[in-house]
Design goal:
- The chain is an alpha+beta fold and 145 residues long.
- The chain has a single domain (23-144), classed as Kinase associated domain 1, KA1 (TATA-Binding Protein, 2-Layer Sandwich).
- The protein has helices at 2-20, 42-55, 111-144; strands at 31-32, 59-64, 67-74, 77-85, 89-98.
- The chain has a 5-stranded antiparallel β-sheet, with helices on one face.
- Helix 2 (42-55) crosses helix 3.
Length: 145
């Protein structure tokens, strides 16, 4: 009986330890830039990415025509990401972080980081759609003149 109890306790401890590791790092891999719009221009996507980073409190730095580095600081939490994009998709890659329990061996991180990235992903898509709609309205007005 003692052997069964010991085995059961050991198994439960192992399960608890596995459950304590954070969730996998969310990367928004090849996310569509738009949920409703036809293919936007690269300029519309670029503006949406930059504005979304700023709107969510990230400091953007353009590193190429199709990429930004975003830096986020909130109290003692720090994160650095790279957003790569084209006219149809984008992805967000974790570069570094502090105080977010990042574990490179199993690619896990604190759930707060994933919330930040998921919200940024949605914001980019919404802003692309808004940019496309706005530009279509402007083009329509110019045609009428």
């Amino acid at each position: 009986m003692h052997k069964i109890t010991t085995t059961l306790l050991f198994s439960l401890s192992a399960l608890f330890m596995i459950g304590c590791s954070g969730p996998a790092v969310y990367t928004a891999p090849n996310a569509p830039v738009s949920q409703i719009a036809n293919t936007p221009t690269l300029a519309q996507v670029d503006k949406a990415v930059k504005d979304s980073l700023i709107g969510r409190g990230w400091i953007p730095k353009k590193i190429s025509p199709n990429a930004y580095i975003g830096t986020y600081k909130r109290r003692e939490l720090r994160a650095k990401i790279q957003v790569n994009f084209n006219a149809s998709t984008f992805n967000i890659q974790h570069i570094s972080s502090e105080n977010l329990d990042y574990d490179s061996s199993d690619e896990t991180i604190h759930p707060t980081y994933n919330k930040w990235i998921e919200r940024l992903e949605v914001d980019i898509q919404k802003r692309v759609d808004r940019n496309v709609k706005r530009d279509k309205r402007r083009a329509s007005r110019l045609k009428r003149k």
